């Protein structure tokens, strides 16, 4: 059984079906007390919650579903009319996420795509009926953050005011991405320091970048 399957089993045994907050609490408890996992977590998650509430996106994209934790965390704050898409390359993780999201009762509100983000992003307008995105959460492989934000730009998926939030800016780090959004002149970008998920002393943080259009 993989770590991700162990987390899912723990959630199914300890959380309440159909209750997203109960699912998040169970994942966090597992991460703090049993086994570390690379979700955004409860500490950085509170910052992400604030960004989602401030932005109130009607159309949102997540790059990196992993176990579905952040998708659940975000969608519980969105109106039922909002469109939320999440992309995961790893088929095993995507399968766990599908079960986790269904257990939380959000399977009808989240569009799960199992593919490479480099293939999906150019198809969002034609295959997923996206005009532009109100918000993007980037939390997949750190070495493709920069590639993918440039793909979002070239495919004209960002509009003036689109909010792009990226996790793990310090640890494990995405220095080329951080340098780009801070210096390219296309974004108003701010770093929000926090702690690495399920850690009391490892510094990490989120980068919030607002596209200038």
Question: Layout of SSEs?
Answer:
Elements: H1 3-14, H2 20-33, H3 41-55, E1 59-63, H4 69-75, E2 83-88, H5 91-103, E3 111-114, H6 117-120, H7 124-127, E4 133-138, H8 145-154, E5 158-166, H9 169-173, H10 175-183, E6 187-195, E7 203-211
Parallel strand pairs: 1-2, 1-4, 2-3, 4-5
Antiparallel strand pairs: 5-7, 6-7
Descriptive account of the structure:
The protein is an alpha/beta fold and 213 residues long. Helices cover 44% and strands 23% of the residues. It is built from ten helices and seven strands. Strands 3-2-1-4-5-7-6 form a seven-stranded mixed β-sheet, with helices on both faces. The model has no long low-confidence stretch (mean pLDDT 96).
Main β-sheet: number of strands, strand sense, barrel status? 7 strands, mixed
* Morphology call: globular
SSE order: HHHEHEHEHHEHEHHEE
Number of helices: 10
Helical content band: 40-55%
């Amino acid at each position: 059984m993989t770590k991700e399957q162990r987390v899912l089993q723990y959630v199914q045994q300890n959380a309440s079906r159909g209750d997203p907050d109960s699912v998040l609490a169970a994942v966090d408890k597992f991460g703090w007390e049993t086994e570390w996992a690379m979700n955004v977590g409860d500490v950085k998650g509170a910052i992400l919650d604030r960004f989602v509430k401030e932005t109130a996106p009607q159309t949102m994209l997540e790059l990196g579903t992993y176990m579905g934790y952040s998708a659940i965390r975000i969608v519980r704050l969105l109106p039922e009319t909002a469109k939320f898409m999440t992309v995961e390359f790893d088929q095993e993780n995507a399968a766990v996420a599908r079960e986790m999201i269904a257990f939380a009762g959000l399977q009808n509100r989240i569009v799960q795509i199992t593919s490479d983000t480099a293939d999906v992003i150019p198809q969002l307008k034609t295959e997923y009926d996206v005009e532009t995105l109100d918000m993007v959460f980037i939390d997949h492989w750190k070495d493709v953050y920069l590639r993918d934000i440039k793909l979002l730009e070239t495919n004209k998926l960002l509009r003036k005011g689109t909010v792009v939030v990226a996790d793990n800016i310090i640890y494990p780090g995405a220095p080329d991405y951080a340098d780009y959004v801070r210096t390219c002149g296309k974004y108003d970008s701010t770093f929000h320091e926090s702690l690495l998920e399920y850690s009391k002393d490892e510094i990490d943080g989120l980068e919030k970048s607002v596209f200038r259009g």
